[in-house]
Amino acid sequence: MSLEFLVASGIGLVTATGIYLILRGRTWPVVLGLSLLGYAVNVFIFAMGRLWQDAAPILSATGRVADPLPQALVLTAIVIGFATTGFVIELALRSRHETGSDHVDGHEPGHRTGKARDDAA
Question: Are 16 and 34 in contact (CB under 8 A)?
Protein backbone atom coordinates (compact mmCIF):
# COMPACT_ATOMS: atom_id res chain seq x y z
CA MET A 1 0.00 0.00 0.00
CA SER A 2 1.53 3.27 -1.09
CA LEU A 3 1.71 6.49 0.86
CA GLU A 4 -0.25 8.31 -1.85
CA PHE A 5 -3.13 5.86 -1.43
CA LEU A 6 -3.17 6.37 2.34
CA VAL A 7 -3.16 10.16 2.01
CA ALA A 8 -5.90 10.08 -0.64
CA SER A 9 -7.99 7.69 1.47
CA GLY A 10 -7.58 9.90 4.54
CA ILE A 11 -8.58 13.00 2.59
CA GLY A 12 -11.61 11.16 1.20
CA LEU A 13 -12.68 9.92 4.63
CA VAL A 14 -12.38 13.35 6.25
CA THR A 15 -14.22 14.94 3.30
CA ALA A 16 -17.06 12.40 3.47
CA THR A 17 -17.37 12.86 7.23
CA GLY A 18 -17.42 16.64 6.84
CA ILE A 19 -20.13 16.53 4.18
CA TYR A 20 -22.20 14.13 6.28
CA LEU A 21 -22.00 16.46 9.28
CA ILE A 22 -22.81 19.53 7.18
CA LEU A 23 -26.07 17.88 6.12
CA ARG A 24 -27.23 17.34 9.73
CA GLY A 25 -30.08 19.39 11.16
CA ARG A 26 -28.30 20.79 14.20
CA THR A 27 -25.83 23.67 14.29
CA TRP A 28 -22.95 22.02 16.15
CA PRO A 29 -22.53 19.12 13.69
CA VAL A 30 -22.65 21.67 10.86
CA VAL A 31 -19.84 23.70 12.47
CA LEU A 32 -17.79 20.53 13.00
CA GLY A 33 -18.46 19.44 9.41
CA LEU A 34 -17.28 22.78 8.05
CA SER A 35 -14.10 22.48 10.10
CA LEU A 36 -13.45 18.93 8.89
CA LEU A 37 -14.04 19.95 5.29
CA GLY A 38 -11.57 22.80 5.72
CA TYR A 39 -8.99 20.39 7.15
CA ALA A 40 -9.48 18.03 4.21
CA VAL A 41 -8.92 20.85 1.72
CA ASN A 42 -5.79 21.93 3.62
CA VAL A 43 -4.33 18.42 3.54
CA PHE A 44 -5.19 18.15 -0.16
CA ILE A 45 -3.41 21.42 -0.98
CA PHE A 46 -0.44 20.41 1.16
CA ALA A 47 -0.25 16.99 -0.54
CA MET A 48 -0.22 18.66 -3.95
CA GLY A 49 3.06 20.36 -2.94
CA ARG A 50 4.91 17.21 -4.08
CA LEU A 51 6.55 16.11 -0.88
CA TRP A 52 9.16 13.43 -1.49
CA GLN A 53 9.82 10.65 0.96
CA ASP A 54 13.35 10.51 2.46
CA ALA A 55 14.34 13.82 0.87
CA ALA A 56 15.27 17.14 2.38
CA PRO A 57 12.60 19.84 2.01
CA ILE A 58 15.08 22.20 0.32
CA LEU A 59 17.75 20.65 -1.89
CA SER A 60 21.22 22.05 -2.46
CA ALA A 61 20.98 22.35 -6.25
CA THR A 62 19.76 25.74 -7.43
CA GLY A 63 17.37 24.23 -9.96
CA ARG A 64 15.47 22.05 -7.49
CA VAL A 65 14.02 23.76 -4.45
CA ALA A 66 10.85 23.19 -2.50
CA ASP A 67 7.79 25.08 -3.61
CA PRO A 68 6.75 27.27 -0.65
CA LEU A 69 3.39 28.23 -2.16
CA PRO A 70 1.35 25.22 -0.88
CA GLN A 71 2.72 25.69 2.64
CA ALA A 72 1.92 29.42 2.56
CA LEU A 73 -1.60 28.74 1.26
CA VAL A 74 -2.27 26.13 3.95
CA LEU A 75 -0.94 28.38 6.71
CA THR A 76 -3.17 31.22 5.51
CA ALA A 77 -6.15 28.86 5.22
CA ILE A 78 -5.61 27.61 8.79
CA VAL A 79 -5.68 31.16 10.17
CA ILE A 80 -8.74 32.14 8.12
CA GLY A 81 -10.48 28.85 8.99
CA PHE A 82 -9.88 29.41 12.70
CA ALA A 83 -11.38 32.91 12.54
CA THR A 84 -14.33 31.71 10.47
CA THR A 85 -15.00 28.83 12.86
CA GLY A 86 -15.02 31.23 15.80
CA PHE A 87 -17.46 33.50 13.98
CA VAL A 88 -19.79 30.61 13.05
CA ILE A 89 -19.74 29.34 16.65
CA GLU A 90 -20.75 32.81 17.83
CA LEU A 91 -23.59 32.86 15.28
CA ALA A 92 -24.75 29.42 16.45
CA LEU A 93 -24.72 30.54 20.08
CA ARG A 94 -26.66 33.70 19.22
CA SER A 95 -29.20 31.70 17.21
CA ARG A 96 -29.63 29.24 20.08
CA HIS A 97 -30.16 32.12 22.50
CA GLU A 98 -32.72 33.90 20.31
CA THR A 99 -34.73 30.92 19.03
CA GLY A 100 -34.33 28.49 21.91
CA SER A 101 -33.32 25.76 19.47
CA ASP A 102 -30.09 24.66 17.87
CA HIS A 103 -31.83 23.44 14.72
CA VAL A 104 -30.36 24.87 11.53
CA ASP A 105 -33.53 26.52 10.23
CA GLY A 106 -34.50 27.88 13.65
CA HIS A 107 -37.12 25.38 14.74
CA GLU A 108 -37.49 21.65 15.05
CA PRO A 109 -40.14 19.88 12.96
CA GLY A 110 -43.27 19.22 15.04
CA HIS A 111 -42.39 21.76 17.73
CA ARG A 112 -43.63 25.28 18.25
CA THR A 113 -41.40 28.11 17.07
CA GLY A 114 -39.90 30.68 19.40
CA LYS A 115 -42.52 33.30 18.44
CA ALA A 116 -45.47 31.06 19.33
CA ARG A 117 -43.84 30.24 22.64
CA ASP A 118 -43.46 33.98 23.37
CA ASP A 119 -47.14 34.64 22.53
CA ALA A 120 -48.32 31.93 24.94
CA ALA A 121 -46.35 33.40 27.85
Answer: no
